[in-house]
Design a protein that fits this description.
single chain; mainly alpha
């Protein structure tokens, strides 16, 4: 005959904590978050067992959780120091989420942490600077060598544009004039450029040929170019 399952094995804080961990995994929570939640639930279940308090989650009251939070603040860590209020506050928020899950599952009718407030860390008092230390600080700021020694000045990197500008200069410092294109260069540029260069060269040769001729020759030359003779 199968043995009866006790309520402690089903509805205890530890048992519901195992179910809650599976639910967190299905929700895609990070392993670090799941470990933090589970550590808080395990600590609460162990505290209830040691103190003889009810372990069934429906019987857990606010005073039980408050006693657990107060005991955690007085415990010492592995390093021998008191547990910080920050870590206790993380466990407080983890247990609040845990009881919210139990409420959704119908294990409890109301959360025992509904009206509880998390532990507030004590304000850190920063000591003020006395007059002697303030005077020393002012003397240090009045020094002129706060910036340290000057940094070495490295020469600028070579610039391609500067090198190109240097090639465009003559030894005397004047700028080099670009060479005029020849007829061969015009031919390389295209037939139209060569034709324009040839016609301009022909006009220059005709003008130079008639520069020393008589008036009649110059008049015919002007007419050949389609120009009006300026003489009377």
């Amino acid at each position: 005959m199968p043995s009866k399952i006790s309520a402690l094995e089903v509805s205890s804080v530890a048992a519901i904590g195992v179910r809650w961990r599976a639910s967190l995994r299905s929700q895609g929570k990070s392993p670090r978050t799941i470990l933090s939640y589970q550590a808080a639930v395990d600590a609460l279940a162990a505290f209830l067992n040691r103190q003889g308090m009810p372990e069934i989650i429906s019987s857990v009251r606010r005073e039980h959780v408050e006693a657990f939070i107060a005991a955690r603040q007085e415990e010492t860590t592995v390093r021998g120091t008191l547990r910080s209020l920050t870590s206790v506050g993380i466990e407080f928020r983890s247990l609040r989420v845990f009881f919210g899950y139990a409420l959704e599952e119908g294990e409890i009718k109301a959360s025992p942490m509904a009206k509880m407030k998390p532990p507030k860390p004590a304000e850190m008092i920063v000591p003020l600077i006395d007059d002697a230390a303030m005077k020393k600080l002012l003397k240090v700021t009045e020094r002129r060598d706060l910036r340290g020694p000057p940094r070495p000045c490295h020469p600028p990197a070579p610039d391609r544009h500067r090198a190109a500008q240097g090639r465009d200069r003559r030894p005397d410092g004047r700028r080099r004039e670009p060479d005029r294109p020849t007829v061969r260069d015009r031919h390389r540029q295209g037939p139209q450029a060569a034709e324009r260069a040839g016609s301009a060269r022909a006009r220059r040769s005709r003008f130079s040929a008639i520069s020393g001729s008589g008036q009649a020759t110059r008049r015919r030359a002007f007419r050949s170019f389609g120009l009006a003779w300026p003489g009377r």
